């Protein structure tokens, strides 16, 4: 894929995005607010997914280890 066709493809995707979101009707200052809000929401969702998904995967992993009989004793039960 050459640079010119990739540039055209990206421009085409941007035009499709503007058509879908109707942002081509907005004034420049409205576009800035709209894109800033959307990018902020996207970053917050990705951050939350990164933080909470790792915790849920760790909890699920511990559950399945316990379920299949690989019991890890904690330090309190070893001391007793």
UniProtKB/TrEMBL annotation:
It comes from the Eukaryota. GO terms for cellular component: endoplasmic reticulum membrane; serine palmitoyltransferase complex. Pfam families: SPT_ssu-like (PF11779). One of its GO terms (biological process) is endoplasmic reticulum organization. The keyword Plastid does not apply. Component of the serine palmitoyltransferase multisubunit enzyme (SPT) that catalyzes the initial and rate-limiting step in sphingolipid biosynthesis by condensing L-serine and activated acyl-CoA (most commonly palmitoyl-CoA) to form long-chain bases. The SPT complex is composed of SPTLC1, SPTLC2 or SPTLC3 and SPTSSA or SPTSSB. Within this complex, the heterodimer consisting of SPTLC1 and SPTLC2/SPTLC3 forms the catalytic core. Within the SPT complex, SPTSSB stimulates the catalytic activity and plays a role in substrate specificity. Belongs to the SPTSS family. SPTSSB subfamily. This is Serine palmitoyltransferase small subunit B. The lineage of its organism: Eukaryota, Metazoa, Chordata, Craniata, Vertebrata.
